[in-house]
Amino acid sequence: MSSETPYSPHATAENQTGSDPVLAGFRKSIDNIDAALIHMLAERFRITQAVGAYKAKVTLPPADPDREKRQIERLRQLSEDADLDPEFSEKFLRFIIDEVIRHHEKARGAAQD
């Protein structure tokens, strides 16, 4: 039987790293950042859902390709400034934008019912 701690989705960094305090410290920081990312994404989607409802109410299209292009360019520049791979950033933002558009299309469909 393995002496490793079994994986648990509710485990913390400290109880996943055994007796290595350096690794536990790194993992705790990563866990905190991951939690912040989730909360920030949740807030972002709350706002974009309100945008989708507004667009549906005033009959604006769900997607805004010009804004999407500007946002991708802006985030690519921010990524370069932050020493983060701009390709990764663009893929990440594209994933979020596609999900937002899907929500906006759903809101438009609900408004038309």
Automatic annotation (TrEMBL):
Its EC number is 5.4.99.5. InterPro entries: Chorismate_II_sf (IPR036263), Chorismate_mutase-related (IPR051331), CM_bact (IPR010951), CM_dom_sf (IPR036979), CM_II_prokaryot (IPR002701). Keywords: Isomerase. SUPFAM superfamilies: Chorismate mutase II. The keyword Isomerase applies. Residues 1-21 are annotated as: Disordered. This is chorismate mutase. It comes from Altererythrobacter epoxidivorans.
